[in-house]
Design a protein that fits this description.
single chain; mainly alpha; Methane Monooxygenase Hydroxylase, Chain G, domain 1; about 75% helix; elongated
Length: about 100
């Protein structure tokens, strides 16, 4: 779905938008917490444990977004005969698996 400048955009349902936004808000809070731990001179393994939790939360966000993308954009494009979408998906997966 192109916008006025030719870039692709996606209109998300209110539920999807809220879910993704809530995840990002939690991640943002975790990142602020990490900064606070660093400022308070927290013990390295404690900071690393929180880093792992933030990384897991960001990965969960990515999985949710990817699932939504496949179920909507990819399926719609393939049904419309836009086979190049498969290449785009494969490129995206390559980036995620690095």
């Amino acid at each position: 779905m192109p916008d006025c400048c030719g870039a692709r955009i996606k209109k998300r349902s209110e539920e999807e938008y809220r879910s993704l936004t809530n995840r990002l808000n939690r991640i943002e809070g975790q990142i602020r917490g990490l900064r606070g731990m660093l400022e308070r001179d927290a013990y390295c393994p404690d900071i690393l444990a929180q880093t792992a939790a933030a990384t897991a939360a960001l990965n969960a966000f990515g999985r949710e977004l990817l699932a939504s993308h496949v179920r909507s954009c990819v399926v719609e494009d393939i049904r419309a005969g836009k086979d190049e979408t498969v290449d785009e998906l494969l490129d995206t997966l390559q980036k995620l698996l690095r």
